[in-house]
Amino acid sequence: MKLVGLEAVLFYLLAVVAILFAIFMITARSAVHSALLLISTLVATAGLYLLVHAEFVAGVQILIYVGGVLVLFIFVIMLVNAKEEDNKMFTRQLLIGGALTFFLGLGIIAILLQTQKGNFFTLASPAPPKIEQAQNNPNLSPSHNISQNTIKIGQELYTKTVLPFEIASLVLLVAIIGAVRLARERKQEKIYD
Amino acid sequence: MDLIWLIPILPLLGFLINGLLARRFNFSEKLVGGVAVATVFLAFVLSVTAFVNYSAWSKQPENQAKPYISKTLNYTWISGGKAFISSNTTPITPENSLVDLNIQWAYQIDHLSVLYALFVTFVGLLIHIFAIGYMHGQTGFGRFFAYLNLFMFMMLTLVLGSNLLMTFVGWEGVGLCSYLLIGFYMTHKEAAEASKKAFIINRIGDLGFILAIIGVFSTFGTLEYQEIARLVQNYPVEALGTFGIMSFIALGLFIGATGKSAQFPLYIWLPDAMAGPTPVSALIHAATMVTAGVYLLARMNFVFQRSLVMMLIIAIIGSLTAFVAATIAITQKDIKKILAYSTISQLGFMFLGCGVGAFVAGVFHVITHAFFKAQLFLGAGSVIHAMNNEQDITRMGGLKKYLPITHKTMVVSWLAICGIAPLAGFWSKDEILAKTFSTTLFHPAIGKMLWFLGFLTAGITAFYMTRLMALTFWSEQKFLGQTASDGGEEESNQEANKNIDQKNDGGSFKIRAVTPSTTNTEAISNTTEATTNDIGSFNIEESKDKAERINLNPPIVSALVADPKESPSIMTLPLIVLAFFAAVAGFIGLPVGYNWIETWLSPVINSFTLHAFGTVDIILALVTMAWSGTMAYAAYHIYVKNPHIAEDLAIKLKPFYQLSTNKWYWDDLLDVKLASLINKFNDLLGEADKHGVDAIPNGSALITRGVSILSGSMDRYGLDLLVNLTGWFTRAGSVLVRTFQTGFLNNYALVMVVGLVLIIIGLEYQAIQELYSQYFPAIPKIIATPAPK
Amino acid sequence: MINLFNIIPILLQAQTVSPSGVKERLLEGIFNVNINNFLVLSGLLFVIGVAGVLTRRNVIVIFMSIELILNAVNINLVAFSRYWFLQSEGKNAYMGEIFTIFVIVVAAAEAVVGLGIVIAFYRNKETVAVDEIDLMKW
User: Fold this and answer.
1) ipTM attached to this prediction
2) What span, in angstroms and rounded, lies between the C-alpha atoms of B434 and B458?
3) Helices B141-160 and B111-134 meet at what angle, rounded to 10?
4) Which of B79, B756, B764 is facing A114, going by the closest CB pair?
5) Helix (H) / strand (E) containing B105
6) C54-74 pLDDT tens trace
7) Confidence at residue B544, expressed as pLDDT on a 0 to 100 scale
8) What is the least distance, in Å, from the CA of C95 to any CA of chain A?
9) Is residue C138 in a domain?
10) pLDDT higher than 50, residue B529
């Protein structure tokens, strides 16, 4: 797996954006700013997904995270009106937490280097698979307007992993019910109970 | 033939239409009933077609070896990947112990299931038609028919399913419908409790069923009936005294069947289930659902035949149930309860038949019983309908002239259940009795004993059924004929007699006010006392409650005021049809000549080689018939000719009478003894808690007290330093421990990350050390272990 | 333009190779983005997320940091999915991405429930600062 040329440039660009905005996010004073910065990070990540031809996941990322979850976050931020935090952003364990995460980062880098000794992950330079060719040749692809990646994911999602898929839908259902139950007011509770 | 799947789906469609739309769009009763009946009628037509086609198909020589048609709805229902099974092949390798858990949602037609589908849809159709008349004007009309249709769907899924799991779905589904329909009058506490009781007791049986399914899968690696039937040939017959895997599966299935088919000891739900509407009692609790247990036994007969010990248990339980239920039925006063106990008794007969290896006879009895018992229930429904929801037969009498059609049709069924030739019940019951008498499965003496029990039961059956008919139709009229049905007369009656029926605000249901009669007060108080003495120590009020609840309730002084009229033709038509079949259904299983049902079922039920039909059987049949006739005449004599004999007998045979009215004390045992046992157990646990577990805090308190006394004395001697030290240590320790329990989210997350870092350091110490030692020389080198090459 | 993420390990390993080797490897690392870059990126995002969880007071920001952590994991999964896609010529190549979808689903569910809790809590206590929430305290 190699990205060269313009793709590499794009990778660095997006990676730097993601990391910088992530750092800004955890240091932003206002929660709304945090949310906006997180959106930027996620969009950058979606760009990274596009770089590795995961178009469907990129789309899902934008739609669900940016379009759904983060909007929800912003709603909640506006609901709870958390301005009081502005003068005191961090907990008392800022120092020890920072130090600990620093060590964690060092440890993770050490692990990465350990695993890539002898270029473990870049051993082979395989021939591009046939699916890729099919993707390039519109005549071979039955529906060439849709990305091959999306077709494949759809096929696998509804055949091999249909059980987890159903379970996921149940999880969402439970989450919806739980959220409704949690978030309703006393007055509403009195009405419905 | 490709439309088999439509048979169950059609009632489901009816359920969806009636269940979802009827209330919202205010369907008229005609529309609701039309939809319900139409779907069931179509299912019946399809069943007939399937039956005709299938009988032609299966007669072809190439199909006779494998007489199953299935996979008509080829949909993989559960695809669970690989599963381990305890394969019996050796050596055990991953190949032969791993199977695909792949369960199809497939409907299967074979000789047994098509027969069941046929009579289920037929009886169901008639009862649907009857119910249109019976439920007329009641609230929840649409709901009722939606449930009935759902029941038909579930029952047909149970019957037509091609594997055990589908049968289980249907099994649970009919249980659910049974629950819903028993509790149909949900504003009545009694009905709600009865539905809960039925549901919970059925769950006990279902546990056994689930265990059996697991056992089947882990043994055979499949749940398809045809596969099981093929694979089971590899297993030997487990003789009496051995209990192998076949016996385990059979036991599980039998426990399931016990719950569903109301066998001893799980039969107690069925009498209470009569709280539901009468068509429900006829359809679910007499004709179809409760025979699902027999279906299961017949379906899995190849498994049962490989476990002689289970066959014996089934036969014993069956005969016991038949006998016990029949004796209880003698003294019941509620017309539906009598029929319920009769149903239990007849189910016991079926189990007895299966138990002695005569599965065909069992299924035969299921079919004949479905006709005459459904007819009896519907007849009872007609009577109840005419009597304004009165169910006590001691308050009826003389209905013969009011309800001529109901009477005539019920007479046919009465003769059928009594086993009078040549009506249906005679052929099937006497086949079971003959097969029991001549069974070769067990020691001949066991067969004879079982036969004797069945023989007694046959007579008792004739007795209580005659009593039912006599008290309902033939004896003196005990209610007041009412000519004008205006409210004024009712009111005056109420004033005259406080315990007259009162209109419930719910509508057409009546609450009966009861007062003890003068004639029977002594007997009643005696029985109440006896109950009190027998059951133990609860106060009198409770015992009164008890007595009322278990039908010791005193007879009614006041006469019921009623104006019975024959039911409309929509109700009498099913009665006539069912009575016709109750009369002739027995001819499908004649013991001599061409025994159609045995020939028909032979591909799926390979019966044991049973005693051939001979003179012994004829003699037995004649003896049984004579005995039944005698008992029937005795009942007629007692209840019609000389009504006072009954009371005399009840007093003379008090122990037996009480045993019967109290239902052999089995309900009380469960209700009172078991409950008190559980309470005692709880008390025991409480005691254990008090003395055992509480000893720890108490003991620590004791120790603390001792320490304080000690330290106090030390203090007295001027050594309070120690005391202070103790306090200080405690406080310091608690401060130390407390710091980890801040309650702050972040701190807990911090601890998690600390753990993460520690794990990383522990696992990847070498990598960290190699990388960072130049910058942090303080990192100690790990004890050198030679790296593996 | 410099390969940011290859610099750190290469410099860290500078002692073991010759100085010229360092330069060569640096040059080689430029414009040669492989899976390690993705892993390093994912690791950094993860650490940033952890830092956010540990240090911030606002519980909503903590939730966002958790989303960041999950996102870091997703990057890992997608990168490995692509890697395996190229290695295995398309066989089972999409499991990583499908897993990513499930992670996103679970993250969404978690956010929904978590924010429900936040709202319920805010209604009672009028605060969203974690160091004022100590109901679990001894």
Assistant:
1) 0.82
2) 13
3) 170
4) B764
5) strand B98-105
6) 988 888 899 999 999 999 999
7) 44
8) 8
9) no
10) no
Give B270-292 pLDDT, tens digit per residue: 888 888 888 888 888 877 888 88
Q: Where are the domains of chain B?
A: 695-739, 744-789
The helix (run of H) or strand (run of E) holding residue B700 is: helix B695-716
Instruction: Say if residue C77 is in the same domain as residue C127.
Output: yes
For the entire predicted model, the pTM comes to 0.58
Against chain A, the chains showing at least 3 CB pairs within 8 Å are B, C
What pLDDT, on a 0 to 100 scale, did the predictor assign at position C77?
92
C103-129 per-position pLDDT tens digit: 999 999 999 999 988 888 888 888 888
**DSSP class per residue in B274-287:** GGS-HHHHHIIIII
Q: How far is C9 from chain A (nearest CA, A)?
A: 7
The tally of domains found in chain C comes to 2
* Closest residue by Cα to residue B186 from B152, B130, B148, B144: B144
Closest residue of chain B to C128, computed from CA coordinates: B745
CB contact under 8 A, C134 and B742: yes
CATH classification at residue C77: 1.10.287.3510
Under an 8 A CB cutoff, do B750 and A108 touch? no
Q: Given an 8 Å threshold on Cβ–Cβ distance, is B744 in contact with C133?
A: yes
Min distance B756 CA to chain C CA atoms (Å)? 11
Give the number of other CB atoms < 10 A from CB of residue A181: 13
Question: Rounded to a whole number, what is the distance in Å from the CA of C122 to chain B's nearest CA?
Answer: 16
- C51/C102 same-domain check: yes
Q: Which residues of C touch B743 (CB under 8 A)?
A: 133-138
Domain ranges, residue A50: 1-83
C67 touches chain A (CB under 8 A): yes
3-state secondary structure at position B376: helix
Residue with tokens 């100085």: C19
Structural domain range at position C20:
1-33
**pLDDT at residue B533 tops 60:** no
Residues of chain C numbered 26-65 and touching chain A (CB < 8 Å): 30-41, 43-52, 54-58, 60-61, 63-65
What is the domain count for chain A? 2
pLDDT-based confidence at residue A166 (cuts at 50, 70, 90): very high
Q: Is residue C106 part of a domain?
A: yes
* Structure tokens given for B402: 């009011």
Tokens of A162: 């249909």
Nearest Cα residue in chain A from B764: A111
Q: Once rounded to an integer, what is the mean pLDDT over residues B32-43?
A: 87
Nearest-by-Cβ selection for B767 from A101, A104, A113: A113
Token representation of residue B774: 């130049």
